[in-house]
Amino acid sequence: MTSPNPLSQELRELRSKARLSGAEAARRAGITQSKVSRAETGAFLPTEDDVKKLCRVYGATVSQQRQLVKMTRDLHEG
Asked: Are 49 and 68 contacting, i.e. CB atoms less than 8 angstroms apart?
């Protein structure tokens, strides 16, 4: 089992602040609930596109979105 990384923790926090369930966030973002859950636990590394979609759904600021996309890119490269 994988442990959460900073990206997964930020995504979970944003979803929580948006007061959305994982299923509702997934529906609004057009991705599976499983992807949302696994991204939040660190079991799955979402794509930059997935992160952008979730940021829009969560109402993240442009700055937050840029930070999370950079985290995603760094994790994919790392």
From this structure: no
How far apart, in whole angstroms, are the C-alpha atoms of residue 28 and residue 20?
Answer: 10
Tokens 């499983």, located at residue: 34
Tokens of 15: 């979803």
Vertex 25 angle, CA 51 and 12, to 5°: 65
Please check whether residue 37 is in contact with residue 71, taking contact to mean a CB–CB distance below 8 angstroms: no
The pTM (predicted TM-score) of the whole model is 0.93
Q: Which residues of the chain have pLDDT under 70?
A: 1-2
pLDDT in tens, 37-49: 999 999 999 999 9
Residue given tokens 């991204």 in the structure block: 39
With contact defined as beta carbons under 8 Å apart, do 69 and 48 qualify? yes
pLDDT value at residue 4: 81
